[in-house]
Amino acid sequence: MDNKNLSQNDQEIILDYSKSVPANFLSNVFSYMAVALLLSGVVAYWWGTSDLVYSLYTETGLSALGWIVMLSPLAFILLMNFGINKFSQFMLTVFFLAFATLMGMSLSSIFLVYSMGSIAITFGVTAATFGTMAVLGYTTKTDLTKFGSILIMGLIGIVIASLINMFVGSSTMDYVISILGVLIFTGLTAYDVQRLKRIGAGVEYGTETAGKLAILGATSLYLNFINLFMFLLRIFGSRE
Fold first, then answer.
1. What pLDDT sits at residue 240?
2. Is the model's pTM score more than 0.85?
3. Contact yes or no for 232/182 (Cβ under 8 A)
4. Is pLDDT at 4 greater than 70 in this prediction?
5. How many CB atoms within 10 Å of residue 119?
6. Residue of 86, 52, 27, 49 whose CA lies nearest to 212
7. pLDDT at 7 > cutoff 70
8. pLDDT in tens, 198-215
9. Is there a contact between 62 and 1 (Cβ–Cβ < 8 Å)?
10. So where are the chain's domains?
11. Cα Rg of the chain (Å, integer)
12. Closest residue by Cα to residue 131 from 25, 221, 231
């Protein structure tokens, strides 16, 4: 009887551990993401409501600094993903914070285009939508892998369409791209949370590897949030 009870206790401990590890991992991911969003928000507001924002532009387009700010975040994403085994967790954290800072600088121009109230409302709608899909992705028992693959193909499609529209300049096409962007990044949020939950279940929490993966996971969710916010702002944002 005692051996049976001990075995049941062991099973309960194992079950609790299997549930807590991915939960703790995701908690770490969302903590990194929250810090990045806060940092980007502070930098965007600081630059966007001061004369600093004008240093990103010239009379004919982007300045040299503007090009650096626009392209550097992509460079940091590639650096973090391809250098995950090379760099320490501390260095990846530094890169992640630098990435969030540059993103804040690039987002500062929204304060020149949209009203403050419109930005605040859109941010709130984005947070509510993102939170709902994150909970759905964490709790659903449906495998979203195939769904995620379709969304990634859709993402590639809107990137290509956006590049084409840079030359075409169609407002209708821009509106359609924005709607599709909202749908795609809403779905990707649920998919990425489920994917990260599985990653968390397969790593030993508290190790440097888990910390590195949490930073990369936070980067993915951060990009989902920012893109969802920007597409919603393009659709519903009130221009100055």
1. 58
2. yes
3. yes
4. no
5. 22
6. 86
7. no
8. 998 888 777 888 899 999
9. no
10. 2-236
11. 20
12. 221
CA distance 3 to 61: 75
Rounded CA separation 30/126 (Å) = 15
> Can you read off the two tokens belonging to residue 236?
């519903």
Cα 77 from chain centre? 11
Q: Alpha-carbon distance 161 to 173, whole Å?
A: 8
**In this structure, what DSSP letter does residue 114 have?**
B
The per-residue b/e assignment along 61-73, b for 16 or more CB within 10 angstroms, e otherwise, is eeeeebeebeebb
In this structure, the number of other CB atoms found within 10 A of the CB of residue 139 comes to 11
Token pair of 98, please? 């630098």
Measured between alpha carbons, how far is 162 from 117 in angstroms, rounded to an integer? Answer: 27
Tokens 């990369």, residue located:
216
* CB atoms closer than 10 angstroms to residue 186: 20
Phi first, then psi, for residue 7 (nearest 5°) are -65, -40
Query: What are the phi and psi torsion angles at 62 (to 5°)?
Result: -75, 145
Report pLDDT digits (tens) over 59-94: 787 888 888 988 899 999 999 999 888 999 999 999
Q: Is the dihedral of CA 64, 160, 165, 101 positive or negative?
A: negative
User: Which residue has tokens 């899909």?
Assistant: 133
Place of tokens 């051996």: 3
- Please answer whether residues 225 and 110 qualify as being in contact, where contact means their C-beta atoms are separated by less than 8 angstroms: no
Spatial separation of the C-alpha atoms in residues 182 and 188, rounded to whole Å: 10
Compute the distance between CA of residue 212 and CA of residue 130 in angstroms, rounded to an integer.
Answer: 23
d(CA 77, CA 72): 9
Mean pLDDT of 117-125: 94
Residues 69 and 107 sit within 8 Å (Cβ to Cβ): no
